[in-house]
Write a structure and sequence with these properties.
α2 packs across α3 and α2 crosses α5. Helices cover about 55% and strands about 10% of the residues. A two-stranded antiparallel sheet has the order 1-2. The termini are far apart. By secondary structure, it is mostly helical. The protein is built from 6 helices and 2 strands, in the order ααααββαα. A hairpin with a 2-residue loop joins β1 and β2. It has a domain of about 90 residues: Winged helix-like DNA-binding domain superfamily/Winged helix DNA-binding domain (Arc Repressor Mutant, subunit A), CATH 1.10.10.10.
Length: about 140
Amino acid sequence: MASEAPAPKTPAKKASSIKRLFLKVKPASILLLLKDAEQSWYPSKLARTSGASYVHVVNLLAELRKYGFVTAERKGKQNIYRLTERGAYFALTLDDLVKKCESAEAEHKAGPRQEAPPAHAAPAAAAAKEEKPAEKK
């Protein structure tokens, strides 16, 4: 009985997508840093502030430019990066998501809470209370 050899594994192609880009901590933190338009954000400053390597930041900025989230403006030897309107929209949305996640985490750490009845059950509960006859004293 001849056994079949396993099929050779082919490396999966790295599909570049917006979802994949922003659902990671460092790209998300860089996008959130860029939200502060009062700062002059150049790659080494973003790397230092976000804790990412310079090379990683440069590669991320290239990808952000490709998707139209940032623009680069040359000032002397530095490229200053700013969010585009599209980038600002994504940054605000991401910031909102981060705040909701932090809030949910804080609630979870605070301990169990009483679950509210589902929204569709609320009208039925109210109707049941109305049908109860009032007790006589």
